Amino acid sequence: MFGVPYVYTQSKVLKARLEYLRDTFQIKENDFLTFDAMRHAAQCVGRALRGKTDYGIMCFADKRFARMDKKGKLPKWIQEQMGSDVLNLSTDECVQICKRFLRKMAQPFPREDQLGLSLLSSEQLQREETQSKIEHKIQKVEVAIN
Prior knowledge:
Elements: H1 12-25, H2 29-46, H3 68-71, H4 76-79, H5 91-105, H6 111-114, H7 122-145
């Protein structure tokens, strides 16, 4: 992502919204605009990941994303991937990290390695089904009592 996706601030609708937030909730214009920009950034990069088996590369190509006032407004799952070792990189460093990641992801990933982590084992599935049946019966009893 190149740049921070701030909205057009001269819009009359946005100015009215910012005035309302400032007067009603004491929210500063800059705080709202930054929060909104980070929400848009998170939605944009999050589109690459739609399921458990998806993977993608998020490149925030703007040094402002490394600042705590921006980074702190991103979702936790993104913040956790933004360690100091991957911030403020040159283009060449970013390309090398991406190549290394893609080579690693291209390797076969055996199903056995996923059991208990991203997939449930047969025993875990059985326990989940049993727990669900018990909870369903408890709800029926509670409804009957009331």
